[in-house]
Structures are given as structure tokens and as C-alpha cells.
Specification:
The protein is an alpha/beta fold. The protein has two domains: about 50 residues; about 260 residues, 2-enoyl-CoA Hydratase, Chain A, domain 1 (Alpha-Beta Complex), CATH 3.90.226.10. Helices cover about 50% and strands about 15% of the residues. It contains 14 helices and eight strands. Strands 1, 2, 3, 4, 5, 6, 7 and 8 form an eight-stranded mixed β-sheet that branches. Helix 1 packs antiparallel against helix 2, helix 6 runs parallel beside helix 8 and helix 10 packs across helix 11.
């Protein structure tokens, strides 16, 4: 597991625990008490570190390479999943995955951004940065959900939409805008979970939902801290200051009314206990699906519009 800079003191103790366990395996040394003592110290230190994370440190945790990604959630939580590919206009974009499945027994359409875990999969999924065809695939799947009266669940985890020339040439801005429009117009429940990094229009393109959840240590922002620092200070060195100014943490965004719920993570982040995370997200989704499936489509639409319009009015005030 990759160790973040601020976690190094904890990593040293965890390495010591592993070393002691190997010594104990030979049957000649009994160091159980010492291991228990060190584990208690690790837990205490993790609790202290993760209880006072700075926005810049939250960014590091949200981007942790071992953090569960979209396909991990799908594999652990979605039964009978059938992947659907292509935008029916240009190509298949594996930065966005989608399909039909069941969450807690409820049939639904699942859409999410996949970053990949190793070099090969990251290249295949373009690091979760979708091109226009990815967003048009998302639109197609949202319309499919509406046609069959199925709720939509989206998993957000992207640094942003792909910024390449070919994406711009194929209408990246229009594709994102149209995707947001479809999110706001479908007459079925749309629930979003920000599982890692929610970056710019690339994230909100599939996140303008009835109920938006964020993992405790995820981030959601109009621009990356590095991008913001490059614009305002003309240097990425101020990324930490930018992260604080952007109010991009789940705690800030809940206070601002941009999101509706924070899902707690295990001590030390989602990458340390993925199964506990999957269980928590599944439970939260099951609850919200139960609530929203009982509402008429027109009512959902009115509530969704009112929710996002209220954010704009609050910002203007």
C-alpha cells in the first residue's frame, strides 16, 4: 500500500508490527503483547491524523491509488450487472462505465467514472477522464433508465473531463452541458456518490442528482487545487492554499448545501477497509432508493430543479 507523506510515522509502526509478526511465526518468540500495544498506538495515531486532516491532505487521500474505484464498487455491490457500451454515435469510452444491475435488490442503471488501478487499466480507462462519447454514453443510459422507469446511481471519481484537442473537436463542452441537462430532466430518481475526486464539469456531468453523497475523505470542486494555484499564483506550489480556499471537502460542501450526505470512512481512509466502505455505501443507497422510488416523476423533477436553483440563489446572496 502506498504511504502518504503525513502517514509516514504510522507506516513505520505498521512495518514494525509486520516484522514482529514474522518473528512470532517461527514459534520461538511470543510477542503478542508488544503487537497489541503497537496496534493500539497505530490506531491512536491514525485517529489523531485523520481527525484533523487539512484540505490539502484530504486531496491526497481522495487521490490515493489504492482507494476503491468505480468498478470495485460495482463488483462488490451490484448484482446481475450487465455492462452497456458505446454512445451509438462515435465510439466506446471506457473512462465511463455503465450498465444495468441491482443494488440491494432494486433494479437500476449504474454509471460511473473509472480511473484504473495499474498502468494498463489506467491507460485503458484514460485515468477516468471522459471524452464527449463518454458523456453521450451516459446520456444514452440515463434516457434508457427513464424509458424503463429505473433509478440511476452514479459514481463520481475524475480529475475532470479529458482536455485533449480531439475531445474539444468532437464537442466536449456541448457533451458535458447536455449531460447535465439530461440529469436535470429525467423523471426517475438519480443518486450520486462522490467516491474519490469530483473534478469540474467532468464530475457534475453525471452528478446533478436528487441526492448527492460524498465519502468522508473525497473532494468535489470546480477546479483542481493545482489548476487554481496555476491561475491565481502562476505556480502549483500554492496548491495547498488553493485547496483550503476552494472549500472542496465533504464537510465544507455539506455545510454549504452543495451535497446532501457524508458517508463515514473507516479509520485511515477507504483504502484500508474497502469492504466496510462497500457495506456503508450499499446501506446508504438502499435507504435513498427506498425514499425516492416512492415519489412521482414530476415531483422528483420539481424537487431537483428547486434544489439546484436554491444553490444558485444562495451563491448570489
Amino acid at each position: 500500500m502506498q504511504v502518504l507523506e503525513f502517514e509516514k510515522p504510522v507506516a513505520e509502526m505498521e512495518a514494525k508490527i509486520e516484522e514482529l509478526r514474522h518473528l512470532s511465526d517461527d514459534g520461538q518468540v511470543n510477542i503478542v503483547d508488544e503487537v497489541v500495544h503497537l496496534q493500539a498506538k497505530v490506531e491512536k495515531q491514525l485517529r489523531g491524523l485523520y481527525g484533523r486532516l487539512t484540505p490539502a491532505q484530504k486531496v491526497q487521500v481522495a487521490r490515493h491509488p489504492d482507494r476503491p474505484h468505480c468498478l470495485d464498487y460495482v463488483g462488490a455491490m451490484v448484482t446481475d450487472f450487465t455492462s452497456l457500451a458505446g454512445d451509438r454515435a462515435f465510439a466506446e469510452d471506457q473512462a465511463i462505465i455503465g450498465g444495468l444491475g441491482r443494488i440491494a435488490g432494486q433494479a437500476c442503471v449504474v454509471i460511473g467514472q473509472e480511473r484504473g488501478h495499474d498502468t494498463e487499466s489506467r491507460i485503458r480507462h484514460n485515468f477516468g477522464m471522459a471524452k464527449p462519447e463518454g458523456y453521450r454514453k451516459a446520456q444514452r443510459l440515463m434516457h434508457l433508465a427513464e424509458r424503463f422507469k429505473l433509478p440511476i446511481v452514479t459514481f463520481v471519481d475524475t480529475a475532470g473531463a479529458f482536455p485533449g484537442v480531439e475531445a474539444e473537436a468532437r464537442g466536449q463542452a456541448e457533451a458535458i452541458a447536455r449531460s447535465i441537462e439530461v440529469c436535470l430532466s429525467v423523471e426517475v430518481p438519480l443518486i450520486t456518490v462522490v467516491i474519490g475526486e469530483g473534478g469540474s464539469g467532468g464530475a457534475i456531468a453525471i452528478a446533478a442528482g436528487d441526492h448527492v453523497m460524498m465519502m468522508e475523505h473525497s473532494i468535489y470542486s470546480v477546479i483542481s487545487p493545482e489548476g487554481c494555484a496555476s491561475i491565481l499564483w502562476r505556480s502549483r506550489d500554492q496548491a495547498g492554499e488553493a485547496a483550503a480556499a476552494l472549500r472542496l471537502t465533504a464537510q465544507d460542501l455539506l455545510q454549504l448545501g452543495v451535497i446532501d450526505q457524508i458517508i463515514p470512512e473507516p479509520l485511515g481512509g477507504a483504502h484500508r477497509q474497502p469492504q466496510a466502505v462497500f457495506d456503508a455505501v450499499s446501506k446508504a443507497l438502499a435507504h435513498e432508493l427506498g425514499v425516492l422510488m416512492g415519489l412521482d416523476g414530476k415531483v422528483l423533477l420539481e424537487r431537483r430543479h428547486a434544489k439546484f436553483l436554491a444553490m444558485g440563489k444562495k451563491g448570489l446572496g
